[in-house]
Amino acid sequence: MHTILINPPIKDHEVPDLRELVGWERRDQDFPALLEKCNFWAGLRDAENTLIAFGYICGTGLQHGYMEDIMVHPGHRKQGVGVALVNGLLKEAEHRRLEIVTVTYAPEHAEFYKQGGFIHCPGGIWRK
Predict the structure, then answer these.
(1) What is the three-class DSSP state of 42?
(2) Which end of the chain has fewer CB atoms < 10 Å from its terminal CB, N or C?
(3) Phi, psi of 2 (to 5 degrees)
(4) pLDDT digits (tens, 9 = 90+) for 17-47
């Protein structure tokens, strides 16, 4: 069982390090500002205290939230960490009385999010 922590202390370099490990742009400039602007975040550390999972929900904090940047260290995948992370975020969303949580994902992750209770639906994205 994985114990997901809500709003755990995170050093400025830890999420960019994890982003790099999963193959994403580091975005060092986003931290710590992202943690100050999102509704809440969740994380999991391994026995060596390394951040191995991270994700957050942002929005107005009223009815709707947007789940973002769900990431799991490549060495800890297929062990239930991602499921625990998403479930932890959704549990906190319920606690904060968010009624709707949306997420955008690549087609290859559709089944993962479906298992988490998400319903696939069409949407759009604007990007500069």
Answers:
(1) strand
(2) C
(3) -110, 130
(4) 999 999 999 999 999 999 999 999 999 999 9
The answer to whether 51 and 10 are in contact (CB under 8 A) is: yes
Prediction pTM value: 0.92
Supply the pLDDT for residue 37: 93
The pLDDT of residue 66 is: 95
Residue 61 φ/ψ region, left for φ over 0, alpha for ψ in the -120 to 50 degree band, beta for the rest: left
In the 8-state DSSP scheme, what is residue 4? Answer: P
Q: Are strands 100-103 and 40-45 parallel, antiparallel or unpaired?
A: unpaired
Neighbours of 102 (CB within 10 A): 14
Residues 6+ apart with CB under 8 A from 108: none
Q: Write the single-letter amino acid at 66.
A: Y
Strands (E), 3-117: 5-6, 40-45, 51-58, 64-72, 100-103
